[in-house]
């Protein structure tokens, strides 16, 4: 699954765009210095989200919306269309 697909599925599971979840994390005081388990626990308790999807959001909290170009343009299951992740929601594409 691509990184973007993890974020898209997170949106489907929570009903909130990644940008909305990032804003909620900020309201909760979750910043780039937070431990991963804080994000995992929050998303599991609040939205029933599993560890993999929570870790995708944690990576964005920690490092921003840019990812490595390792899988961009590849044909594998982990391929991403761009190094820039879309956080504004599936409906806005």
TrEMBL record:
It holds the Pfam family DUF4287. Residues 69-93 are annotated as: Disordered. InterPro entries: DUF4287 (IPR025629). This is DUF4287 domain-containing protein. It comes from Microlunatus parietis.
